[in-house]
Amino acid sequence: MTFPFFPFWFIDVFGSFLMVVFGILCVVKAFSIRRLDPHNVVWAYFLWLSMALAFFALSRSIGHIIQHILTVTGYKHIWEILRPYSGSLNTVTFIVGGSVTLFFGGVWEIYHRIMKDQDALREAHNKLIFINRHLDELVRERTREFVASERKYRRLFEEAHEAIVVASPDGTIMDMNSAALKLFGYNRSDIGKISLEMLFQNADDFRHFWEKIKKDGSVTNWECILQKNQNQDKLVVLISGSREEEYVERYVLWLRDITQRKILERQLLNADKLASIGRLAAGIAHEINNPLGIILGYTQLLLRSEPPDSERYEDLKTIEKHVRMCKNIVGDLLKFSRMSQTEKQIGDIHAVIEDVLSMLHHQFDGSRIVIERDFDSSVPEFSFDASKMKQVFINMLMNARDAIGDKGGRVFVRTRWRQDQDAVWIQIGDDGCGIPAEHLGKIFEPFFTTKPPGKGTGLGLAVSYGIVAEHGGDILVESTEGKGTVFTIILPLK
Length: 494
Prior knowledge:
Elements: H1 6-36, H2 41-72, H3 76-159, E1 163-167, E2 173-176, H4 178-184, H5 203-216, E3 218-227, E4 234-244, E5 250-257, H6 259-269, H7 271-304, H8 311-336, E6 345-347, H9 349-359, H10 361-364, E7 369-374, E8 382-384, H11 386-404, E9 409-418, E10 423-430, H12 460-470, E11 474-480, E12 484-492
Parallel strand pairs: 7-9
Antiparallel strand pairs: 1-2, 1-5, 3-4, 4-5, 6-8, 9-10, 10-12, 11-12
Helix pairs in contact: 1-2, 2-3, 7-8, 8-12, 9-11, 11-12
């Protein structure tokens, strides 16, 4: 059974004709869309692909039509010659279509990247426009935040109890807080004119310190001796600090004054020695007190029978004088040894001080020494041994008088109630000769004195320290040679 050939021939020819028509219509449509958006790469791809397909349809349709015409007219052998050329043309058309697709695929990827970058640029552009429009407001806001932060840290810097010094890499002081200015005696106008080296008493100490912090970037509790600006007073200080390089290189140092602590440490080191000497003094005092009393008694008996103008009378008076001096020393030794019991009673410390000042009034008459009182009326009555505290005040006031001498001066007695310590502070000071720095650690040692022979036994301050210690208190001393001394007696209320 065979099928008629004509229907197939007709479909093939008519279909080829329709392919050409549809290809041309697709090209026309692609052109019209391309004109609407000339820069759209997708429409460009559709146009090129439509042209390739239209060319393929035209090539294939013409080839089929020629094939059928030559076959029907009996020139099939001619088609056999033309068929490879027709196939090659179709193949080239397909290659062109595939190449266009691959080409526009790469273009499409690049296009997407460009569009992504364009979006990023557009976003950055919008941000720049926003910043440009709101720049003044943003600057004001950041300025307010910076000023607030600077004020906060400046307040912390200024209100710190420890001294803080900021120095540049060459050692010039860039800033000092209030505690540092007070500690070294400088004014704020001096900042920038002084160097860190000027604070050190010893140039070698500064060199070692500066090399250490520059090498390691920090130091911790570096103990050294510094000095004040005006009077060259020594300060024992612990320095901690570090190098900062966030914006500019600088060195921030924290300084803690431990001068008083060092003095107290020396006093504590002497405590055992004082106790041993006290026990020794008690034994010696008891052993020699009675013989001295006998010698003094017999000397006074002999004086009664001697005429005042005789040579023996003068010799006996000399013996009496030196025996009394020995008895005074023994008496001080007995007091220092704390043989007597402390009897505390509630009393007014101001009344005790006034009794002592009245008692010593004749000692200050004609000496051109002015006694100033500065009593704190809020000091309450508390428990203490009035007789022993009188002895302490007498020792302190007599030392002040001796320190001033005949040149005249000022002695002040000041009291304060320190509620934060629940203690009473009693300060006795003078503007006399002062105590040399090398002697400050020895003044509470028994028998240590700077007075000439016959003027002091060296036991007054030692006895006073023992009495105050029995009350649970302490004695602090501040002195500048040539300017005066201040003793601070601290007595706890409980």
